[in-house]
Protein: Cysteine dioxygenase
Amino acid sequence: MTTTQIRPTTELATLVDGVRTAVAVHADWSGTARLVAEQLRRHLPSPDVVGSGESDGYQVLHVEPDGSFSIVAIVWRPGQITRIHDHVTWCVFGVLQGVEREELFDADLNLIGVSDNLAGDVSGFAPPGDIHRVHNTAGGTAISIHIYGTDVTRVGSSVRRYYD
Structure:
């Protein structure tokens, strides 16, 4: 995979510029997640950023050439759920279509929070304290955009570890 923008749309270009500005502040991971979340709220793209939405799964939309961040779209089929996991870096996500339920866990895997994120909702987090699971609880396809503080094409995934 290449380390250049894969879907060069005006909508995405505006978001990329905003994320560059946020990352350039060089805040700590929590601070960067907050700044990137502000940019995503301002520049949340439409579901059209993933084309027809017919393809499943993980679509890399942009990787910053210096590896400082990646933008990924995820298409979730009804009932699709992740394993409980955490991340290698800060992460910000926004729901473009549908509903995504996020369950948060503490280090002992006790459920400590649940939120139903609707289209337009944006959230972010940074390790530690980022153990979660995501589930499309609605009857239709959900689409979300995720921004990670790493080059996901180089590291293979934003997931640090999975929990049973």
The chain has a mean pLDDT of 86. Residues 10-23 form the longest helix (14 residues). Residues 10-151 form a domain with the Jelly Rolls fold (CATH 2.60.120.10). The radius of gyration is 15 Å.
